[in-house]
Amino acid sequence: MGYAISVIVPTYNDSTVIGTTIEKLVDFLNRENINGEIIIVNDGGGEETVRAIKEKIEKYPAIKLIARKVNKGKGYTVREGLEQAQGDFIFYTDADLPYLTEPIKTIFEMLKRGEADLVLANRDFASDGDNKKPAWPRLITHRIYSFFVRLLLPLEFSDTLAGLKGMNKKLLSTIISKLTIDKWSFDVEILLVAKKVGFKIKEMPVSLENVGKTNLNIKRDAPQMIKEVLQVWKKNRQGHYDF
After folding, report:
1. 5: closest CA among 98, 81, 79, 67?
2. 127 CB neighbour count, 10 Å cutoff
3. Mean pLDDT, rounded, of the chain
4. Res 129 pLDDT > 60
5. Where is each Glycosyltransferase 2-like domain found (predicted)?
6. Cross-sheet strand order for the sheet of 36-43
7. Which among 22, 183, 200, 203 could bridge 73 via Cys, Cβ 3.0 to 4.6 Å?
């Protein structure tokens, strides 16, 4: 069965928020009269998270669950969802739905009009008064990480980590075989491959509406993030992303 959109939500021990996120996404699809699917991918999270999701599945047939007991990383998890998505337009967002659903509607309209093949949310474009403050690990990591990305790769985007992106089916089917990063820097790889192919990429300002907990640990994850950027840089130089 085909869908107008697929919304992929990676989750890991998010039992306190995932139910509300699903409710808001289902309400959005119904309110906008969009034929869509919601794919929740559990990245080895606990049983409480799985139970919270299954409770919603009983109420809403649009929800699909990919459950995995082993933690593989956010990139691997999003990629699992991308491979299963049947929508003409595909989105992924964080489990705490940090920008709510209005930006999804805006990106959906942009993609349908052919203004872009891929749209990424950018928190830097929003005015300071509109943005809530993220957890300090997210803020610090965002600044340092963005610097390294632009230093090493031909990407001009100032915010690759924002947890909302949308793309059309043609872009996804073209680039999916090239994607390899399993953890934090998968967004960078997606953007780089899409740009190399020549797809049209646009940024859209978003305001942080919901400051949820973060699974990011600076001491543990920051070195891994930089390592992954270097991996993407090396793969790019070696021609891995060439077509």
Report:
1. 81
2. 8
3. 92
4. no
5. 6-173
6. 63-68, 36-43, 3-11, 87-93, 164-168, 118-122, 201-205
7. 183
